[in-house]
Amino acid sequence: MTAKLNARGDVAVLVPAAGAGLRLGPGGPKALRLLAGEPLLVHAIRRVAASPSVRLIVVAAPAAEVEAVRALLTPVAPVTVVAGGAERQQSVALALAQVPADIGIVLVHDAARALTPPAVIESVAAAVREGRPAVIPVLPVVDTVKEVSADDIVLGTVDRSVLRSVQTPQGFRHEVLAAAHASAAGSLTDDAGLVEKAGVPVACVPGSELAMKITRPLDLVLAEALLRLPDSLSG
Question: Does domain 11-234 have CATH number 3.30.43.10?
Fold first, then answer.
């Protein structure tokens, strides 16, 4: 059954899904790797589509896989699929170009965070709606963190109380994200980094352990275990 998006929603979600995912080992594009028999992208889009605020989903797929991704996602939710770029930033910009001006909130979400609960998506959107120009979901850093030199000598211990691990979706006022990409120079690992460089304050909301990034083969094993959790625990 295809999920219906909220025609009155005020949120567009961009999903850059053109990356190779080399750290997952040999295989196709990361977003199309299987998790419990379904591609990561399908899991991610299913949860995005379950978020009540979402009106539009745009996926930036590998250029050679656009039609295949469109066919894959048609039974899941109404999705606009475009060809992505060589770099993540290019893919986001290409997806952003598909968002109409009357949608005021834009979220950027990693397909690799395939189990992100809809509640996190709604929390990020709500914070932008309440007036924050940029919002990221975060978790406290639980490991001790060391600063080290180029030759692997410890220089000091970082105060982890001021550190956060960043997740997605990252949310923005439409015009804030558009301006950041229009003036982007160089490549950054996330869109919040772009708006930070532009001097825009970025607020934090609580993330979720379920929004883990599936990057290594072990992550797939952990994600499959999480899928077996009861609904009350799995978001």
Answer: no
